[in-house]
């Protein structure tokens, strides 16, 4: 027994030491990504298709949109895939990205407990729902992490004329963590949460929570993809990165995104082609 | 310094009965005498534990150091061996302070045995390796002498108190010392082991090794001592040939001690 | 607590079915943490021994520093290593970010202070015990060091196990510098974090149980070593 453990340990160390210098293999790129695309299983579905076609390994680092953009600005990624249009445009504007493309969309929804303390269940007006939440001082769990979802949420509060920071720590609870963690917190304390639909559909720890608000056009959630600029980051694998971006935007990539289903539901709606057509048209 | 050593070595070499192998040892042993201690003081915690002590040991053989608990016997041995620096005064072995060169020719058995966390045999091997190659035969014969051969493979720290003391002595002898400093080496031994140790000590002394032996056992001192140093409150209260000391003690503290009265 | 029953069932079925992804993750966890442990032991035992046996000005400060760094939060280590290894950082040219090597570096930094601090204490205590004997025998310093390290080996193995336990269980550092990339830098703890964020609590718990089982095995080994040592009074 002891000998076996020792042998295994030695093997592991040898493997560790020899594997250590070998970084991500040559034919691989790093994508700095928002969490929802990773947590919903989209990458697990589309990346093998891309790999099969091109032999390129796509390594996904899934963090919040804010963090993903920061990491990409540090040149720690080849492609950026996030959902916060204005930040993305700023990223490109400052020269970190080559060009931003619309990739796909889905929408945000509000989920809440069956008791529905703010009385917003079944409505489709996000602003009104948020006003009601603030008025009733109903618990609301926010990402609070500068992610794409968080940025969107703040915009909506602003539009609703509510300053939630006054309720911070009281009814407005900022988790400072990812979508999943925030949903866990929300479900745990019976607080409303604004989440992207993809994460919600693939989320397993829903408890008795249901979608309470959906269908507002203001809840539109656009994802964009950007190749990191070699001019700023000499180490960027431009060719492979471009190949991935092109594929995502191609009919084949778009078709792959659109055909991903979870519990029979489509999570992401590709919209790159239309945009390309609009551009050319 | 060498002149002194050579002159003295001649004297002792005649007296020592020895085979060829121990001849060199005998010469060196003599080289460390006389031991001269001048004005030696050791102060700690605001007390003078060794207090301007003077002592001269010129004769080979066994010097026993006696005195009540706390008299400073163990401290004196450490000072003689150079393990702790004196606050004042000096210790000279044949004119040399107890530096590494002198320490190398001495071995000390501590009142509380210090044993390596290893087997009995490995404890012996460790010190023998320091001097050169470990010699299994010699190791085993030393262990045999102190009655520990059957326990060679035992972890030293599982030995009984007496066995630990015997191992300490065997280990000290394994270093081929010219001077043996023994701090109550028979304190917790059974009568048979006491006799064994005394015989080993006497043999060593007979081979020319100078023995300084701390003991509280009057009968033992009478059996083995050639001379006695009686310590009291950090000073030498009496230093005399053994016969004189036991028959006609001159200091009152020694009288009290020998009579079994409490000495403070 | 339906989750618990479900988690145990899942954990067993995962392990018993020999799930390839699971074993890949476990294997990488072991590779990273054991390699970090090896590096930390070489550095930590070395530092610990040197500080234990030498006296120099500022030594107390070094000991306080070791003890303080023992409590270094993994995320802080992760952040520092990220800043260093990032393409924008001083070591960016090495291209180590988001590789197992980065994770090994982070974990090594995390546990080296633990190993140095604990081994310093152990070595110093044992050295104190041997000190007079060694000086009496005029043992050369390097021999003394080797002897103390050897005689303290059972205690030092316990120290190494403590370091390993911390390395294999931490998530903050490897998450940041490894990126939790599937099939590349995903280890048990980051996988647990991921499954938790997906709300898949039973899968997360199942992975946690596997992690716990590994830690338990390691600790049981440590205990049996120690009790062997105890029986032999080497401890
Ligand atoms: N490092 C030290 N600091 C302070 N006091 C000390 C120190 N070492 C010894 N002493 C004190 O010095 C005195 C002499 O100690 P020592 O060990 O030499 O006595 P001893 O004559 O060997 O006694 P015993 O017969 O009990 O072995 C004691 O009172 C002891 O408490
Ligand atoms: Mg004493």
Give the topology:
The complex is a heterotrimer of chains A (281), B (264) and C (235).
Chain A: H1 2-19, E1 28-33, H2 35-39, H3 42-54, E2 57-62, H4 65-73, E3 79-82, H5 85-93, E4 97-112, H6 126-136, E5 140-142, H7 148-160, E6 172-174, H8 179-189, E7 192-196, H9 197-202, E8 210-213, E9 220-228, H10 238-249, H11 251-258, E10 261-262, E11 265-266, E12 269-270, H12 272-280
Parallel strand pairs in A: 1-2, 1-3, 5-6, 5-7
Antiparallel strand pairs in A: 3-9, 4-7, 4-8, 4-9, 4-12, 10-11
Chain B: H1 2-15, H2 20-31, E1 35-44, E2 47-57, E3 62-66, H3 73-81, E4 88-93, H4 100-104, E5 106-109, H5 120-131, H6 136-145, H7 161-174, E6 179-183, H8 191-206, E7 210-214, H9 218-224, E8 227-232, E9 235-241, H10 242-247, H11 252-258
Parallel strand pairs in B: 3-7, 3-8, 5-6, 6-7
Antiparallel strand pairs in B: 1-2, 1-4, 8-9
Chain C: H1 2-16, H2 20-53, H3 59-70, H4 74-85, H5 100-136, H6 141-151, H7 153-169, H8 172-178, H9 188-197, H10 201-231
The structure holds adenosine-5'-triphosphate and magnesium ion.
State the CATH class of chain C.
Mainly Alpha
CATH class type of the domain at 59-83 and 103-258 in chain B? Alpha Beta
- Helical region count of chain C? 10
Query: What order do the SSEs of chain C take from the amino end to the carboxyl end, as H and E?
Result: HHHHHHHHHH
Structure description:
The complex is a heterotrimer of chains A (281), B (264) and C (235). With 281 residues, chain A is α/β, with parallel strands linked by helices. Helices cover 44% and strands 22% of the residues of chain A. In chain A, the strands form two sheets. In chain A, strands 1, 2, 3, 4, 5, 6, 7, 8, 9 and 12 form a ten-stranded mixed beta sheet that branches. Chain A has a two-stranded antiparallel sheet with strand order 10-11. The longest helix of chain A is centred in the N-terminal third of the chain and has 18 residues, at 2-19. Chain A is globular, with a radius of gyration of 21 Å. The termini of chain A are far apart. Mean pLDDT of chain A is 90; it is low at 276-281. Chain B has a domain at 59-83 and 103-258: Rossmann fold (3-Layer(aba) Sandwich), CATH 3.40.50.300. In chain B, helix 8 links the parallel strand 6 (179-183) and strand 7 (210-214). In chain B, helix 1 (2-15) packs across helix 2 and helix 5 packs parallel to helix 7 (161-174). Chain B has helices at 2-15, 20-31, 73-81, 100-104, 120-131, 136-145, 161-174, 191-206, 218-224, 242-247, 252-258; strands at 35-44, 47-57, 62-66, 88-93, 106-109, 179-183, 210-214, 227-232, 235-241. A six-stranded mixed beta sheet of chain B has the order 5-6-7-3-8-9, sandwiched between helices. Chain B has a three-stranded antiparallel beta sheet with strand order 2-1-4, covered by helices on one side. Chain C has a single domain, classed as MetI-like fold (Orthogonal Bundle). Chain C has helices spanning 2-16, 20-53, 59-70, 74-85, 100-136, 141-151, 153-169, 172-178, 188-197, 201-231. In chain C, helix 5 (100-136) packs antiparallel against helix 7 (153-169) and helix 7 (153-169) runs antiparallel to helix 10. The model of chain C has no long low-confidence stretch (mean pLDDT 90). Classes of the chains: A alpha/beta (281), B alpha/beta (264), C mainly alpha (235). Chain A binds chain C through residues 2, 5, 8-9, 12-13, 15-17, 19-24, 30, 35, 39, 43-44, 59-62, 71, 73-76, 177-181, 183-184, 202-206, 233, 235, and chain C through 27, 30-32, 34-35, 38, 86-89, 92, 95-101, 104, 179-182, 184, 194, 196-202, 217, 221. Magnesium ion is lined by residues 73-74, 111, 183 of chain B.
